[in-house]
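Case study 2.
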Amino acid sequence: MKRIDYFDGLLGSAKDLVSAADAAVNLTKNFRQGLQHAHKVLVTDFTEDEIDENMGDIDFANDFTEELLKVESELKTLSLDTEHGCYDIKHKLEAALTGIESIMVDEEEELVELSEHSRDELAHRFNKISDECSNYFNQVGSDIDHTQNTYIAAVINQIQSVKKILLLRNKQAYSDLKIQLFNVLDAARDVGLKIESSQHRVASNVTKINKFISKKGLWYYQEKYTKNTTKNCRTDRAIVEEFQGKLEAEFEKFVSMTQQLGSDVNDDIKRDIAQLG
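Prediction:
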């Protein structure tokens, strides 16, 4: 009976792997088709010759702008769907591989049954470790959300309030600043995704350890998932801190560019006033 369960477990995990791999292939195909469609629409509907010929035509410019915004919106939606799909597939692959690993454990490995007191104590300590790890990621995510919703939002509003002046005085620098702002927001999004992935692992291990602790003679799994939690926490924290560093670098560059643009525009206005005097 054990041998039948063994092979059934392997077969089930193999099916999960194949299913996840198939989903990954389909996701890649859909993403590629979306990119090809966007490229085809822009190249077919608006050729380089047409753009040169109609340069200065307001109606043509409006049509071109509307089409660009439409394509951009579709690509953003496609990218987000692909991103979420990749994370779902990643979690399915991790679950399947974890299942295979547990099945392949030596069936003759000696198991130590814990006393009721030991189980309760181990569960308490494990939950304490998990809570501290989860609290760290929650705090980092909260700090980033707060910064985005307060300081960065305020900076954006301030820049938008003088948008016309900036465009008239230094259009290229204003465009570069907008691009850098997107770099900041993308970096913040990357940190958020890393935190989301880390919290998923923490929650997954909590579920497993509490499940196995309540059973008898499964010390191997209790030891395994307890160690995995602390190891994953350290690894994920290092990854989150790395991406935090990238976010800070992008944000410092954005601040520097904002200050430089403000200074340049201010000097330009002063020169104009001096010439009028």
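DSSP finds six helices and no strands in the chain.
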